[in-house]
Amino acid sequence: MADQFRVGDALVTRILELRWTDTDPAILYPDLDSAALRDHGSLLSPGSYNPATGRLEQGTHSWLVRHAGLTILIDTATGNGKSLPAAPKLHNLQTPYLQHLKDAGVAPEQVDLVLISHVHADHVGWNTHLHDGAWVPTFRNARHIYSAIEARYAASCDGQTPAPDLPPAALGPPDHKPLARVYRDSMLPVLEAGLGQAITVDGSEVAEGLSFHPTPGHSIDHASIRLRSRGEEAWFMGDVMHHPLQVYRPDLRSVYCEFIVPAERSRRWMLEQAAASGSLCFSSHFAETAAGYVRRRDGGFAWQFASPIAGTNR
Ligand SMILES: [Zn+2]
């Protein structure tokens, strides 16, 4: 059974896609220094960092949210059969993701809303699946909500119209480009089917208790998604962080961050929000339960994994 959490009246279930145990921290974090794991390795739990191998554990998944009568998916992981040769771990996957969704009691056509934190390969992949050689929407009754800027930038990176949104001056020039084919294979079929809703990321509610908040940097208009229900609050952090090590060392940018200075600013903003509010935080790539709390510690922050109300704790 998949891990489940409660946030007010909402039930949040992790839909697992992939787990791996062999992330080389020096590749994930190009600016890693020897002090990072020496000083903080012992604070990371064995399910996230293996001191014997020196490797980090990570994964990909979606969060299924049932709230106010709606069935909502937050990000859609990588998908099956997506051609991503530049990201070998994600290239041409065949995983039982849809079976995991079914095991959680949801058929693809029952999904009402898909909320997209950012338009990267491992967050929009299951938007589409291959049918008779063409990419078609997987969640054919769902409204897919995403940043208009993210979609236009992804289109431009794929050589598609509409015209690009150039990075705003505040972000500076990109340090890294997103993977190719993501818009064409995973966004365009959804938009062509009339299932897309482009939004401005400004904190407005897109559904009861759910709102997109700007945390740019990892990608051009990356959003963190807030859920409020019956006085409780949670954050779906997208790729503000890729591993709990960054809670202790928010200065470490991932190799996938496109605008590294604003990415760090957004990470610190998220950590402040989470520590001040005590909100439950849902990550996109942490291992273990992938959900937890940010606590204040010695002028910085610490991470504490949350226990699910049900599930296998895997
Ligand atoms: Zn990601």
Which properties best describe this structure?
314 residues; alpha+beta; Metallo-beta-lactamase, Chain A; eight-stranded mixed beta sheet; seven-stranded mixed beta sheet; 8 helices; 17 strands; 30% strand; binds zinc ion
Walkthrough of the structure:
The chain has eight helices and 17 strands. With 314 residues, it is an alpha+beta fold. It has one domain: Metallo-beta-lactamase, Chain A (4-Layer Sandwich). Strands 1, 2, 3, 4, 5, 6, 9 and 10 form an eight-stranded mixed β-sheet that branches. A seven-stranded mixed β-sheet has the order 11-12-13-14-15-16-17. A hairpin with a 2-residue loop joins strand 11 and strand 12. The longest helix has 18 residues. The termini are close together. The relative contact order is 0.18. The mean pLDDT is 94. The site of zinc ion has 6 residues, from helix 4.
β-strand number: 17
CATH topology: Metallo-beta-lactamase, Chain A
Briefly note the structural class of the backbone.
alpha+beta
* Inertia-based shape: globular
- What's the CATH architecture name? 4-Layer Sandwich
- Order of helices and strands, N to C? EEHHEEEHEHEEEHHEEEEEHHEEE
The CA-CA distance between the termini, in Å, is 10 Å
The major β-sheet equals: 8 strands, mixed
What's the domain count? 1
CATH superfamily: Ribonuclease Z/Hydroxyacylglutathione hydrolase-like
Number of helices: 8
Q: Output the radius of gyration.
A: 18 Å
Strand content: 25-35%
Ligand species: zinc ion
- Helix amount, in percent? 10-25%
CATH domain class: Alpha Beta
> Oligomeric state of the chains?
single chain
Uncertain runs are: none
Mean pLDDT figure: 94
